[in-house]
Please model this.
Amino acid sequence: MTTQPETATSEAQPSRAVPNQPPAAAAASNKPSGFAATDVLVNEFADGPDTVDKAVASPDELQPHAELGLKDDEYDRIRQILDRRPTASELAMYSIMWSEHCSYKSSKVHLRQFGEKTPPNTRMLAGIGENAGVVQISDKIAVTFKVESHNHPSYVEPYQGAATGVGGIVRDILAMGARPIAVMDPLRFGAADHPDTARVLPGVVAGIGGYGNCLGLPNIGGEIVFDPTYQGNPLVNALSIGVLPVERLQKKEATGTGNIVVLLGARTGRDGIGGVSVLASATFDEEAEQRRPSVQVGDPFMEKLLIESCLELYDAGLVSGIQDLGGAGLTCALTETAAAAGTGMRVWLERVPLREASMSPTEILASESQERMLLIVTPENLAAVLKVAEKWGVWATAIGEVTPAGADGTPGRLVISWNDHVVVDVPPGSLADDGPVYARPLREPADLILLQADRAETLPRPSTGDELRETVLKMIASPNLCDKSWVTEQYDRYVLGNTVLAQPEDSGVLRIDEETGLGVALSVDGNGRYARLDPYEGARLALAEAYRNVAVTGAEPIAVTDCLNFGSPEDPAVMWQFAEAVRGLADGCLQLGTPVTGGNVSFYNQTGAAAIHPTPVVGVLGIFDDVARRIPMGFPAPAKAGGDLLFLLGETRNELSGSEWAWVTHGHLGGKPPKVDLAAEQALGALMGRASKAGLVSAAHDLSDGGLAQVLVESCLRHNVGAKVTLPEDGSTAFVHLFSESAGRAVVAVPRGHDKAFLALAAEFGVPVTPIGVTAEEQTLQIQDQFTIGLDELRTAWSATLKNLFGGPAETASADGEGRSVTLELTERN
Amino acid sequence: MRIGVVTFPGSLDDGDAARAARIAGAEAVRLWHGDPDLHGVDAVVLPGGFSYGDYLRCGAIARFAPVMESIIDAARGGLPVLGICNGFQVLCEAHLLPGALTRNQHLHFRNRDQWLKVEATNTAWTNQFTPGQEILIPVKNGEGCFVADQKTLDSLEAEGRVIARYVRGNPNGSQRDIAGITNEAGNVVGIMPHPEHAVEALTGPSLDGLGFFTSVLRALAGSSADGQLAGGQQR
Model:
């Protein structure tokens, strides 16, 4: 039932051919059992579908371009390109491909900086514009990684929105020729105690777990942030990383006239129609509930089979080109593969295996059904491809073929028919590459000057030991700083057996090669409050934090991916924030020598006039020559009497604006975010890399949200090891030392005997070092002259919050009916 | 010694089980769900995962796979078989072990490092432990709550067929804190936590999982030496 071996080679047609019916035998063999006969479909339309012929004959017919999200001038341009009105299918395709989500029409002019400011590097094998960036990490091995948003679907339907977010990014990784090996999820929700957060968060977490766990990918890190700014606009970003032998790198070009276009994976249904144009490219209103059908439904089991079959196909050398189907479905995959090669393509839509027989050609082209890939294969390889698909129980169907470019060297055309009706005849590049580009107006938000003037450094502060003690307990129990294991325990972090470090560690660390110990570290970070106060510095701070998180584990940071979450680009204030953030990130990456390899933009995270805080989320990839030397965050049980020595690296300044302390204790956001010194970050990173290689450090933890107090609590609680800390007497108050969020800092534990070597190394790299105490046998965190808190009391305060908020029975979602039927069909085969 | 590891569509920890077998000193042999040939392996591991998606009852479809027909026959003849997580569910569905694994009581998937107390050590897979030994092994499942009727539970206890119980917290609501059981002959063992994820210091919380794999090697060495069935005495 799964494969329909047949060749379409006999129907090679010139690119602008009038419709040509595929041989009856081929058409029949394309129909899976239970699929309705063709003529039934045709009868559903009184006059058949809108065709190219009809479009030529009825130039003045009114078309719903505005309803599909196309502006008047965009519609006029389509008519100009085609020299006629578009057919209904073409109109839908242009509306999808020219949507903000697919065309990057508002962001393109800014994103160019990532290319223009790329630091010199020899590792990047594929970059922006590909499905995901690919970075070489040894002579033979490369990794590919990317972060993407699935914000809008996850608000409408939390479980499926988040689940298919994981599925989508994993297919991007797969399309590059890589085996996906892990996922991470940076998440942002509204206020922790808001009723809608109780609806969204459990569903999102269950969806990420349900999909990723079933796919067999360890979840190794991410973020969970609460802020009222995300009320109604939660951010569900998903990152995946994969590994490939360098020579297995795949490309998406549909090259080779006569090559066969094969659709692999799940059947096509009505789910997700309008996902990118309706959901992701407009602002929400009260009708969000009605948009549920625009959310795709995931089947992780099918995706697992898709992964295994694609990898088998790559290894056998059977694939000439490949592209995943995600947002914009077949429309995007067909136009992008053809446009990338400059070839044409002839597609017979009635061959696409459907879940619902009554789907119209427009629906088939727009469907965002999950777990599908588009392959370009040579005619002689087709039988072998279908055999591999059959082994894994995955549908594989030849739906078209590659046609030549024009005789005059012009690109070929994409011609799509449906039961003899030519419904599409377009230049594929006009959809994939030549969408509208806008240089939208920018204007600094009117309130920014006042906001920056309202500094948190002037807020009333705790000063006595008792007040500081109470502040620590209050801070660690706050939703952003508390224990996240209620969430992360729902994710499998062990599967595949190569997870060296996972949350709550600073970075996820994976072993890549069991023989050599070659490995990678990954961290994703962002701080919307900092970016609200200063988007340029906020983006650089996100980059600095992710870079530091990777560096403190001992890895060498080498590359960046980003997910840029913003409000409506039609608001000049939002567009200014976006432009500033991109400029900051591009400048920062240039200075750190870590190129942006790919990423994603999510606009329209906005309810009414209120946009979210600008939230650039930055992922940094680092490498280890031997992952055995990774440095964990938890203080180890004291091996020698007197414990390990604790040092604070970096400079602490009086920086509290935008801090977690200002927010938790005063509900305050104002002032300017902490200073960024990327040269200092590089020095810290270089020091940690050398210290790791020399084995001088037993634990290291990056300082960020919540400052030193948070780091001490987390490092103590990791293995239940106490600490005695003496804050430096340098003129700053104990409060500033404990809660400042100055960047470029880390706490390290150094075993006695290694301290001289470590201090010498720090001096060599010019990293300021302050001794702050020792790890201790006593089960307490003791801040000399200020306060002492038992580890039990810390743990109780730290670990209760999420359980109390979300501890009830989880929102659960059963597998969808489609998934079940696929399973049963597979069973029959076995 | 050759330990077979079955791959069903949707198996996820199959590579990890094979790695654990290798680390223990065995040769790992990959077995395919659609192939009834066991390729002469000396023991079999049914790994964790979501066989066939587990959209029906977990393991309910896998028990009908061609490879399972051979394994069920061989297990009845004394072949050592270890079912981990989804493999345990398959063994219950195949009626090689009593009881069933149902949805965790708290309804969440849960992944944590879990303490277990080993009880029966006279099986093919646990003879390298001492009774009462506490071991630390990752648990990760959504449907790991072991249930059986009272009579079955009583007889499992009376016959010493509980191989391990959860201690310091029950992660899924399993009756009588049962984490793993064996059949009467001691050659078939099912366990919900994942010993294959506790075999390397770099990636696991302990090395305690290795004992399951070295146990079967010892059982096999013993049985080939004295001509008995692997897995200990018939009751």
Summary: Residues 60 and 182 of chain B are 19 Å apart (CA to CA). Chain B touches chain A at residues 9-10, 12-13, 15-16, 19, 33-34, 48-50, 52-56, 61, 64-66, 106-112, 138, 140, 142, 194, 196-197, 200, 202-204 (CB under 8 Å). Confidence is low (pLDDT under 50) at residues 227-235 of chain B. The domain at 2-226 of chain B is CATH 3.40.50.880 (Rossmann fold).
